[in-house]
Hints:
Helix content is about 60%, strand content about 15%. It is of the alpha+beta class. The termini are far apart.
Amino acid sequence: MSSDLPGPSEPAIPSRPEDPQSLRARLLALLGDGDRMRRMPVRAVLLGTALVIALWSGARWVERSFQSVAPGEAGLVVSKFTGSTRIVPPGSHFLPGSFYVLTRMRVSDQLLSGPAATFTVPTRDGFAVGLVIQARWALDRTQLLARWAGLPADPGTEVVGPVLASAFRALAPEYDAPSLLASKREELAARATKQAAERLAEAGIVLKDVLVGDLKLPAEFERGRLALLEQSQLVERTEANLRFKKQEIEQQRLEAEARKARSDKEAEAAANRRLIEAKAEADAMTYILPLKEKGIKQQELEAEAQKARKLKDAQSQAETMKIQAEAEASRRRTMAEAEAYAIRQTSLAQFENLKREVELIERNPTWVNKTLAEKLGDKVQVIVMPNLTADILSKEAGKRVANGQPALASRGE
């Protein structure tokens, strides 16, 4: 092996890629020199590498062999060797792809809608009515093993939709378009659901519910229906107006009869009332005349009593005035006597006072100016007196002062 390797001083001879010697030389160059290769356990390395690769491949194979089934689905397992089938529940299962084929099928409720649930049906009156339905269906778990081979990839579109359309088309000619539009759509849906459910049950499909979402009538039927509806409304309005007029006429007749009956009753009541009033007035006169006579007598007595009362009032008023006049005269007389007594007492007091002053002046002649000025200041403004002697202010001056005259006589006197 070492003879085949080139020496360190010898250059490598290029060769073609197809030459085995060339490939061997490149492999040896990558691995190293020949002595080192002799020392390495080649078989052990190759065996270890093969074991690692086998373990890795086995782990990958085991990992790929576990397959899962989602909730709401059923797993249909088919053996590649025996051809047997079985159903596995949702979860993870050890199903190697080399031995088994797993087919996942949805068994939960599904809704059919859209274009697959839209179709037209003929009616008894010859119209093509468009129906838009919604169907809820599911695969029967009990028949899944027996029917799965005959089911298409999309059972809703390829089986449920056509079966429902066929059932509706078979039953719709028994109804006319107005009845379907008014109240028969639910009945048609129930009958078609029952018929389609029986046919779908044979294919392993359970039809649970069908609802008619919309019902589309042709344009000419819609125009005719609107025209008929307008005409019927016009007839109904006319009938309503006629009934209203009849009610008005009947009401007017009843009101006239009521007014007549009311006027008759009012006239009868007025006549009875006048008769009763006349009778009552006649009966009352038998009582009123004595009462009037008594009233006249009573008025006369009241007048006499009022006259006597006025006379007594005048007498008492005259006596009162007389007593008041006497009292006033007595009061004036008493006041005059009191005033005269007061004047006498005042004059006497003044006389006594003047007498004392005269005696004082007689004893003190020099004070005559001051005393006379104080007593006679309101009558004489300026008094110029000579030096008086005791003879001038004598008893004559005292008498004049006591009589209310000036102490000194004027020039004329």
